Amino acid sequence: MDVAxxxxxxxxxxxxxxxxxxxxxxxLFADPCLYKVTTAENVAxxxxxxxxxxxxxxxxxxxxxALRKANIYERQRYRHIVGLPHVMGRDGTATDxxxxxxxxxxxxxxxxxxxxxxxxxxxVSADDTGALRFAERVVVCDGGRFDTLVAIPL
Length: 154
Known about the structure:
This protein is an alpha+beta fold. It has helices at 3-18, 40-45, 57-69, and strands spanning 29-39, 52-54, 76-82, 86-91, 94-107, 112-126, 132-141. Helix content is 23%, strand content 43%. β6 and β7 (132-141) form a beta hairpin.
C-alpha cells in the first residue's frame, strides 16, 4: 500500500478531530469497522476492553451525536502530531499499519497539556471507489491515566 496515501488518511483523521469537524470522522471508516481506545498495559495483558469502543460506522455517528447534543464536558480540543505510518503486512484485502501519535489537549482557557501518546494499530482497506478507509483503528495509549473523561475521539 502506498505510504503517501496512508499519510493522507491519517492527516484527514487528525484534521477532522482537531478542527472539531466530528461529522467527517466516521466517514474515514469502513462499515462495519472497529474503533477502540485502550492502553499498552491492556494490550500487553491481552485485555480486550477499552476506554472507548465502536464496531460500526453508526456507532461512530452516535458518538458524534452524543458529543454535539448529550455529553457534558469541559470545553477542550486536541492537536494531533502524527508520525509516519509503518506498514506491518497484509491480511487479505487489508493492510496492517502502525502509526505513532502525540495529542496535546487545549482547554477552553488556553491551557495546553500533553494528553496522550501512543500508536494507532490499523487495518486499512480500499472501498469500492478506491478511497482508503479504516477497517480497524485501535488506539493504544502509552499511559493509562486520563485526568478527564475521554469524550473526543483520539
